[in-house]
Each structure stands twice: as C-alpha cells, then as structure tokens.
C-alpha cells in the first residue's frame, strides 16, 4: 500500500520538511514505520518495517517468531522484563528486589533505571546498543533525516538514546550518520506527533496486510485520522 502524504508537507503538523523518516517503536516487541520520499513505505505486502526480527546473533536467544537472536529477543520489552527478572533472581541489590521476580515488567525496569538503579540502567543500555546496531543498518539502507524512538521504553530518555546514538556513530556510514537526528517521541510535541503518526500508519499498514481484524474501510478511516493529525 502506498499513500501519498500531501498534508505531510503542506500542513502545519509534525514532520514538515522531513522527507525520509523512520519511527522505531520499542514495545514488548520492536517494529519500524517508514516514510520514504514523503510516502509511507509498506513494501510489497505491507509487511515492511519488521526491524525487530533482524538477526543480531544467529546463536542468540529464541524469538517469538521462532528464529534465534532477533533484535527483539535481545532488546524488546519482553527481553528487558526477562533480564529484570533474572536480575532479581540473582540476588543483586536493586530497587526491583522488593518485587516478586516473575511479575517484573519492562516498565518496572525502566522505572528503576529512572530512579537511578545501576543494574536496571545497564539492562537498558545494553538494549539501546542492540537497537542502535539495527538502526545503524537502517540508516545505511535508507539514509533518513530523522529517526524517532517511541514506545514505553523511550520514556527513559538518555539512558537508552545515548547508547543508541553511540552505536549509530560507530556503525553507520558517515555521510548518512552526520545528517540524521535521533530523537525520542518524548522530546516535545513535534517528535511525539511524528511518532504517533507513523505508528498509526504502521498499524494501518499491518492491519491491511493481515486483513483479518479489520476491513479496508476501517483502515482507510485510520489513515484519514492520520491526515487530520497533520492538519491540526
Ligand atoms: Zn524474531
């Protein structure tokens, strides 16, 4: 599905002037929404953007998709939660220690990191490095002007963006690396709107591709909403 975003450039909303945008959502999994040359890029069947299943290490942990060592098996919310659970089980002193280990979520780890817990921060830093490695690849392929990091984990800000930027600096080709900004969806209205928009686009694309929980009418309604976001 290819949609022309006329309002992307002409409206007063987010993303004005940005032609090539990548939105990376770090939720329980990791996905990407792409706008290339002002058009949503969904690929042949609408399945583009599955950055979470980029192989980081073929011998790595088992992913939900059945393969081993995908990005999201290292760095997604579920992986962060598992590492938080292992941390508590290990008996190390951490803010998380008071919680029943089997119930620890990525949100708990992020909250502990924000409150200064060094072990929780280390989990998120590692996550950020893996995400940054994948983003460096995406930057090399698509040369976007902006990469927006969204999803719950992005709320920890620098704790995750510093290692992401570092990995990108180390691995992306210079010509692309120097012209890209990496921001979180939390840094203000502008980037938040870009994130929300691309996420909504991405969801719409995936619904259309899977064509099971939605009709094409619902999908086009969703896309109309996106355009309205731009106009407001
Ligand atoms: Zn996978």
Task: Describe this protein's structure.
With 232 residues, the protein is an alpha/beta fold. It is built from 9 helices and 5 strands, in the order H-E-E-E-H-H-H-H-E-H-H-E-H-H. Strands 3-2-1-4-5 form a 5-stranded mixed β-sheet, with helices on both faces. Strand 1 and strand 2 (30-36) form a beta hairpin. The longest helix has 25 residues, at 118-142. The model is unreliable at 1-15, 212-216 and 218-232 (pLDDT under 50). The structure holds zinc ion (ZN). The site of zinc ion has 5 residues, from loops. The site of zinc ion (ZN) has 5 residues, from loops.
Low-confidence stretches: 1-15, 212-216, 218-232
Strand order of the largest sheet: 3-2-1-4-5
Give a count of the beta strands, DSSP E runs of length 2 or more.
Answer: 5
Helical region count?
A: 9
What's the end-to-end separation, in Å? 25 Å
Shape: globular
Q: Helix- and strand-based class?
A: alpha/beta
- Radius of gyration from CA coordinates: 18 Å
Present the secondary structure layout.
Elements: H1 6-10, E1 21-26, E2 30-36, E3 39-41, H2 71-75, H3 77-89, H4 106-114, H5 118-142, E4 146-150, H6 158-171, H7 174-177, E5 181-184, H8 189-210, H9 216-231
Parallel strand pairs: 1-4, 4-5
Antiparallel strand pairs: 1-2, 2-3
Helix pairs in contact: 3-4, 3-5, 4-5, 5-6, 8-9
The structure holds zinc ion.
